[in-house]
Amino acid sequence: MFQKMMTGALIAGIGAGLLAAVLHFAFIQNYILLGEQYETGELVHFAAPEAAVATHDHAEAADHGTAEPAASDHGAADHGAHEHGDGETSTIERNALTVGFTVLLYVAYGIMLTVGFAIAAQFGKRITATEGALWGLAGFAAFQLAPGMGLAPELPGSAAADLAARQVWWWSTVVATGLGIALIAYGRSLIATLAGAALIAAPHVVGAPLLDGYYGYAPTEVGAIFSSRVLGVGLAVWVVLGWLAGRQWDRSGAAA
Amino acid sequence: MNATQTKTQSLLAPVLGMAVIGLTMLFAVGHAQSATLHDAAHDMRHATGFPCH
């Protein structure tokens, strides 16, 4: 049983993860690199006059492909204290790691979906590829859309509240939204539906941890297109992941 | 013990095992803050909506 479930989750996760990697490099990576140029002060948005003065000398050094994010002498020093180690990591290595971790992430999501299928099967639900695609939509809503409503996908060069607090809110939102969707989708009473809706709403009533102001260095246009692309790619990949996982589940006999 | 109970019990271990593996992977890949893991997973974390840094 374990082997059947794990095989299905692996196939779905690797397939979806590879698709995610392709879409990542087609739609998202360029904005990450652009955001980092603002984060390190290599590029300066006109609306950030203080940073513009402090980082003026960097404009000429900006053309070096491997320009070190010299955190010591530009305006974004404290903001960009997080270093990416770009100097030491080649682009190929960096991108290979991104592909690898993207596949690992969607394998993890594929495993979670398959666990969900097994639980649903205990309640007499038959999961097919179509049903799986719907589960994929739900997974997208729980793992990306709902957390993203409080904590928008972060462009490098944007600023956000305390990391641990955000991670706690992220997990809480994922659990509450997932349970809420399950109650609405499979609950058999009005009370279950209402409880599901309340669970989905709760994290947003509480609110995500936010800063007291806005300290991002990147232009809003870059952040906006980045966020919408992250969500669009996430939606596409999650539906494919769910479809694949549902198909594997249905065919492997794990459901029987 | 009827057939349904047997089936439920035989499912419990693999489902729990899978859930633990999936959650551990999700935490390691998306949330763990060791510098090495963070740098390696950096672009993916930004691109999939995790709180990164």
From TrEMBL, chain A:
Q: What UniProt keywords are attached to this protein's entry?
A: Membrane, Transmembrane, Transmembrane helix
Location of the region described as Disordered in the Swiss-Prot/TrEMBL record: 57-89
Instruction: Provide the leader sequence positions.
Output: none
Q: InterPro entries, per this entry?
A: CbtA_put (IPR012666)
Q: Name one Pfam family in it.
A: CbtA
Q: Which residue windows does the record flag with biased composition (Basic and acidic residues)?
A: 57-66, 75-87
User: Does the keyword field hold Acyltransferase?
Assistant: no
Ranges that cross the membrane: 103-121, 133-152, 168-186, 191-211, 223-244
NCBIfam families recorded: CbtA
Q: What is the name attached to this protein's record?
A: Cobalt transporter
The source organism is: Pararhodobacter aggregans
UniProtKB/TrEMBL annotation, chain B:
Superkingdom is: Bacteria
Q: Locate the transmembrane regions by residue number.
A: 12-32
Annotated InterPro entries: CbtB_put
Keyword annotations of the record: Membrane, Transmembrane, Transmembrane helix
**Which protein are we looking at?**
Cobalt transporter
Annotated source species: Pararhodobacter aggregans
Please spell out the taxonomic lineage of the organism that makes this protein: Bacteria, Pseudomonadati, Pseudomonadota, Alphaproteobacteria, Rhodobacterales
